[in-house]
């Protein structure tokens, strides 16, 4: 029985482990922390008893390989849909403009009337995505030398407002500025989200441990050929004397999880002979940079290109209050104009079990998760300070918002300008701020594609996995991590178990580039008109708000007139229940390999929606069309 050593128990490592275990391999998974999940981790804080997580994560429809694993590990009911990104301007909780399913064409009219930006700039935003998708295949490599901003501002129709909207959405999702991000990577992401855009994405309806990572780990541990080695931090990679294989892995046995602790100690060391084993390196680019020295560099000098890859830290505020805030949206919401590119999600309305201990008739205390996509300016100060053990306020935050000296104080100053929260409302024991500097997110910077490693290496028994390893997803995503793990597993299977079933990778479909080229040409006059309209708005805006009100009335009348012919106005989604979009399925037959994911899980075999996870039919259940023809929208 062939043995495989996988270093890194993140999504890539766990994906590779699952597929290799299914094919009869013995898998040992080494992890430097005392928890699994990598960027999807969730660990118990021993002081507060709360779970600390690395941001919230969005799961679009086209994550087919992830959805397939989610189905296999039994977590089909653990997700809830979202279709909007909202914008909080100042403290206007009564008015929250939104972008609905912004990657696709079906909500064109709905977004024009959404208030997220002036109508002409919203049209230009959507037209610019068509323009990007119209780029022919042979120019894709060239696009990697352009930033998203560079591409957008090279277009004569582009406006500052439309470009800023791209920046806001990109920074919200990927924690990287559009002036740094590769246009090629952006195009790849838009290509897939455009095809599968309703709903835009799903969120876990509970913490990542109970709702995702524990079921996944339980699945791995159901194989008697699986071993997990936590608190094993890889210290050195030693090739054989010929430099053709990895002969030995040397680990430091640490006392605390390095990813989430500033201080940790080495308690012991161990060396593992892997000369006859397969090795998958599913660690971060930062770890590769640290390990790539001496004989390892001599054996695989091409991995030195990883030194060019960059990663970005992300700040995360877990904001617990001692009161309930009304009127907060259920969607991912941008603090428009705030420092640090901040967004928030109200876990009180997202996590299904959060109100279990709330008295009948009362509302649960609000729990917000706030992400800060740009915290580089805060790296030189401590994330937070707490009272020491033995103090009467043991482990509570020390806050002086008038004279901030920690990152959390600067962030809270921004948050409290937008939300009706006083210092006395904050639960100082549970609230916490993480800089996540030990697990930075790989950034798809301009020119990074050619620097990224392939799955296979010159070393006969070493394969690479991780979001930064080249794969069809390109953009640093959960799905990209899954695919990279599957690619490594398939390489090992093909080498050592040729008679076993191949490890398949499901590739999303995309609309043909010719369609977008035709739309780009046909709508070019409209884009030029929108640019002139936007310029007119700049001039007319100097004369007060009456022009904005007049413009809004014109748009509303136009939308109402055109509604029967294009666009859609779906019923409000049941956020914690079934999906409520009548056109959300792609009308694929159930044996189709891409007929997978929540939009299929929520329907029974007769084509009726399931409600609350059950199989009973309600009056508003909708019978789906049968047949193999794909939805054209």
Automatic annotation (TrEMBL):
Region (Disordered): 611-633
Basic residues: bias regions: 611-622
Gene3D superfamilies: FAD/NAD(P)-binding domain
The organism's place on the tree of life at top rank: Bacteria
SUPFAM superfamilies: FAD/NAD(P)-binding domain
Amine oxidase domain residues: 11-114, 277-492
Name of protein: FAD-dependent oxidoreductase
Organism whose genome encodes this protein: Sedimentitalea xiamensis
Taxonomy of the source species: Bacteria, Pseudomonadati, Pseudomonadota, Alphaproteobacteria, Rhodobacterales
């Amino acid at each position: 029985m062939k043995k495989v050593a996988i270093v890194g128990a993140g999504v890539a490592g766990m994906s590779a482990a699952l597929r290799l275990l299914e094919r009869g391999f013995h898998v040992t998974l080494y992890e430097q922390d005392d928890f699994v999940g990598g960027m999807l981790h969730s660990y118990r804080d021993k002081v507060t008893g709360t779970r600390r997580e690395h941001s919230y994560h969005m799961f679009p429809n086209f994550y087919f390989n992830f959805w397939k694993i989610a189905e296999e590990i039994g977590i089909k009911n653990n997700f809830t849909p979202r279709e909007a990104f909202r914008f909080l301007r100042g403290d206007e909780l009564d008015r929250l403009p939104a972008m609905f399913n912004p990657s696709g064409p079906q909500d064109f009219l709905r977004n024009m009337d959404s208030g997220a930006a002036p109508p002409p700039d919203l049209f230009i935003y959507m037209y610019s995505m068509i323009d990007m998708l119209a780029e022919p295949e042979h120019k894709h490599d060239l696009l990697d030398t352009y930033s998203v901003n560079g591409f957008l501002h090279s277009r004569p129709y582009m406006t500052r407002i439309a470009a800023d909207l791209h920046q806001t959405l990109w920074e919200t999702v990927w924690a990287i500025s559009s002036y740094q991000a590769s246009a090629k990577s952006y195009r790849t992401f838009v290509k897939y989200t455009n095809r599968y855009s309703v709903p835009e994405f799903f969120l876990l309806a509970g913490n990542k441990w109970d709702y995702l990572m524990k079921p996944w780990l339980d699945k791995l541990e159901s194989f008697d050929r699986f071993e997990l080695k936590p608190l094993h931090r890889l210290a050195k990679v030693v090739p054989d004397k010929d430099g053709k294989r990895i002969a030995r892995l040397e680990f430091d046995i640490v006392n605390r999880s390095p990813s989430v602790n500033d201080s940790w100690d080495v308690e012991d060391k161990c060396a593992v002979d892997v000369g006859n084993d397969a090795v998958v390196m599913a660690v971060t680019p930062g770890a590769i940079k640290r390990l790539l020295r001496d004989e390892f560099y001599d054996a695989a000098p091409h991995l030195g290109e990883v030194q060019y890859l960059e990663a970005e830290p992300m700040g995360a505020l877990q904001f617990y209050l001692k009161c309930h805030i009304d009127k907060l949206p259920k969607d991912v919401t941008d603090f428009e104009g705030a420092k640090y590119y901040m967004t928030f999600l109200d876990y009180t309305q997202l996590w299904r079990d959060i109100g279990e201990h709330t008295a009948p008739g009362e509302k649960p205390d609000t729990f917000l998760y706030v992400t800060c996509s740009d915290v580089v300016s805060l790296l030189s100060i401590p994330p937070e300070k707490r009272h020491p053990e033995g103090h009467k306020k043991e482990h509570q935050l020390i806050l002086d918002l008038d004279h901030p000296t920690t990152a959390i104080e600067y962030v809270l100053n921004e948050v409290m300008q937008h939300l009706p929260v006083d210092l006395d409302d904050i639960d100082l024991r549970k609230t916490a701020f993480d800089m996540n500097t030990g697990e930075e997110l790989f950034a798809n910077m301009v020119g990074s594609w050619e620097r990224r490693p392939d799955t296979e290496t010159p070393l006969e028994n070493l394969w690479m996995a991780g979001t930064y390893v080249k794969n069809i997803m390109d953009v640093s995503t959960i799905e990209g991590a899954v695919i990279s793990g599957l690619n490594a597993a398939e390489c090992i299977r093909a080498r050592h178990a040729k008679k076993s079933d191949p490890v398949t990778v499901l590739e999303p479909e995309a609309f043909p580039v010719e369609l977008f080229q035709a739309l780009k040409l046909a709508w070019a006059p409209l884009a030029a008109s929108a640019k002139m309209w936007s310029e007119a708005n700049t001039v007319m805006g100097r004369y007060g708000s009456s022009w904005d009100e007049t413009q809004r009335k014109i748009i509303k009348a136009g939308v109402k007139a055109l509604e029967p012919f294009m666009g859609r106005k779906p019923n409000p989604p049941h956020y914690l229940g079934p999906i409520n979009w009548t056109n959300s399925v792609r009308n694929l037959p159930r044996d189709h390999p891409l007929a997978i994911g929540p939009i299929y899980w929520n329907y029974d075999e007769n084509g009726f929606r399931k409600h609350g996870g059950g199989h009973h039919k309600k009056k508003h259940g909708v019978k789906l069309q049968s047949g193999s023809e794909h939805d054209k929208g």
